[in-house]
Amino acid sequence: MDTPHVGNLLRAVIPGPVKKRLKRVFGIPQTRLHSDWKVLSCIGPVYRPHVVLDVGARHGWFFHCWQDWCPDAEVHAFEPVQEAFDIAMRLYGSHPLVKINQAGVGCSEGSLDIKIFEKSGASNSFLSLRKETWEEVQFETGSVTERAVPVTTIDAYCGRESLPNLYLLKIDVQGYELKVLEGAEATLPRIDHIFVETGIVPFYEGAPRFTDIYEFLSQRGFHLMAMQAWHRGNHKLMETDMLFRRDDLLLPIDDRVGKVMERLG
């Protein structure tokens, strides 16, 4: 096991009360948001039980960081690739508030072939890569193999698990974002926030652009709260993380906002 996995394993197996005591001793905040996810700062921390779905969990880094910030979160995670699933289970499978499912998520239940990239495991996808984009950013795949994996939908899974309202749906599925959302039509009215990574420039054939995700969710009662974008050194933005909130959660307008806008003008 490499060093990062050892560190994650240690953090995963240390009991919560012990973590709290250690944090007090070393002056570390009891909960903190990892800098990787600063775009989420406007919706937490959450100090009450709530449900998070992590679609495209890989080794579990996202939900590990979320629970470090919001320790009462109940996590349902999805990772279709056996090797990544095994690591996530080894690190977090015994956590009482974590359920890791070895499955992909899409618009219908069944089975799909996923492409496994030898040198870029975080980029595994149900879609074929878009060669010109990968060449532009100088990503390497190594050998590419395919294997069939089980696939479920958000609607089907939430129905089977009788999940209540979801505080957060996180999606990181390498070009398959719209398929995941299409399989969540019945659940969307019960989701408070959606955090999705998507392409500004498509990395995969047939993948949506970030504007497609925006239009889909806008038409279904969500508004964009925050976003951050990434480039590969040439200041051409390639990918973005977008955070959406359901419209009916919007707080009443703060009358101070108008004054701020006047000053900015």
Tally of domains:
1
Could you state the order of secondary-structure elements as H and E? HHEHEHEEEHEHEHEHEEH
Q: State the secondary-structure class.
A: alpha/beta
Per CATH, which architecture?
Answer: 3-Layer(aba) Sandwich
Q: What Rg do the Cα atoms give? A: 19 Å
Find the count of extended strands (DSSP E, 2+ residues). Answer: 10
Kindly report the name of the CATH homologous superfamily: Vaccinia Virus protein VP39
What is the typical, i.e. mean, pLDDT? Answer: 89
What do these coordinates show?
The chain is an alpha/beta fold and 265 residues long. The chain has helices spanning 3-13, 16-26, 61-69, 82-92, 131-137, 154-161, 177-182, 210-218, 256-264; strands at 50-55, 73-78, 98-101, 104-105, 110-117, 144-152, 166-171, 191-199, 222-231, 237-246. The chain contains 9 helices and 10 strands. A 7-stranded mixed sheet has the order 3-2-1-7-8-10-9. The longest helix is centred in the first third of the chain and has 11 residues, at 3-13. The termini are far apart.
